[in-house]
Amino acid sequence: MNLPNKITISRIFLIPLFMIFLLAPLPFGDFVFLGTTMPVAHFIAALIFIIASATDWLDGYYARKLNLITNFGKFLDPLADKLLITAALIALVELQLLPAWMAIVIISREFAVTGIRLVAAADGEVIAASPLGKLKTVAQIVAISALMLHNWPFQALSLPFDMLAIWIATILTIWSGVDYFQKNKHILLKSK
């Protein structure tokens, strides 16, 4: 088990922790800061989510720098990303901070892309993440963080940054999904 894979596994282990802070009825109460009222537990959950998201960059950095890219890491890293994002989206729907249809669109795209990657892998082909896909991931992380933070600090300015961010993330998710399938349709056509 090399360092990048350990970092990836830590991301998976952080998921239940941020879910507990986000969903469990913890006795921390609320706080008001710069015009935003939010549960203290949601603030802690957002910090854990942001740290977990940062490990995605960190494991990739060390894998490339130390030349520790493994098949296990190629499998586990995208799985950890999808688990993290999916868990956060479902929790935000439960908290009524995110419309369910947006979560469904984002999660469906992730399943579809994973499916085409599995078909490609069966043929010995590896599909690297595109710049648009990476931008989509960053947009999702920013949007989810803003929703967990109850639009702090933008609430003080009456700016609905959280909803703007999730709209951008949803649009980028659809766009990157269409782009992904257009660029890799040969894999689906070959598998008929």
Automatic annotation (TrEMBL):
Biological pathway: Lipid metabolism; Phospholipid metabolism; phosphatidylglycerol biosynthesis; phosphatidylglycerol from CDP-diacylglycerol: step 1/2
Primary role: This protein catalyzes the committed step to the synthesis of the acidic phospholipids.
Membership in a protein family: Belongs to the CDP-alcohol phosphatidyltransferase class-I family.
Keyword Transcription regulation included in the entry's annotation: no
Subcellular locations according to the entry: Cell membrane
Enzyme Commission code: 2.7.8.5
Main location: membrane
Residues passing through the membrane, by range: 12-34, 40-62, 83-107, 164-182
Alphabetic keyword roster: Cell membrane, Lipid biosynthesis, Lipid metabolism, Membrane, Phospholipid biosynthesis, Phospholipid metabolism, Transferase, Transmembrane, Transmembrane helix
Recorded catalytic activity of this chain's protein: a CDP-1,2-diacyl-sn-glycerol + sn-glycerol 3-phosphate = a 1,2-diacyl-sn-glycero-3-phospho-(1'-sn-glycero-3'-phosphate) + CMP + H(+)
UniProt key word Membrane: yes
Protein name per Swiss-Prot or TrEMBL: CDP-diacylglycerol--glycerol-3-phosphate 3-phosphatidyltransferase
InterPro entries per the UniProt record, alphabetical: CDP-alcohol_PTase-I, CDP-OH_P_trans, CDP-OH_PTrfase_TM_dom, CDP_ALCOHOL_P_TRANSF_CS, Phosphatidylglycerol_P_synth
GO-annotated molecular function: CDP-diacylglycerol-glycerol-3-phosphate 3-phosphatidyltransferase activity
Chain's gene name: pgsA
Membrane topology per record: Multi-pass membrane protein
Highest taxon, organism lineage: Bacteria
GO biological process: glycerophospholipid biosynthetic process
Cellular component, GO annotation: plasma membrane
Pfam families: CDP-OH_P_transf
Classification via PANTHER family: CDP-DIACYLGLYCEROL--GLYCEROL-3-PHOSPHATE 3-PHOSPHATIDYLTRANSFERASE 1, CHLOROPLASTIC, CDP-DIACYLGLYCEROL--GLYCEROL-3-PHOSPHATE 3-PHOSPHATIDYLTRANSFERASE-RELATED
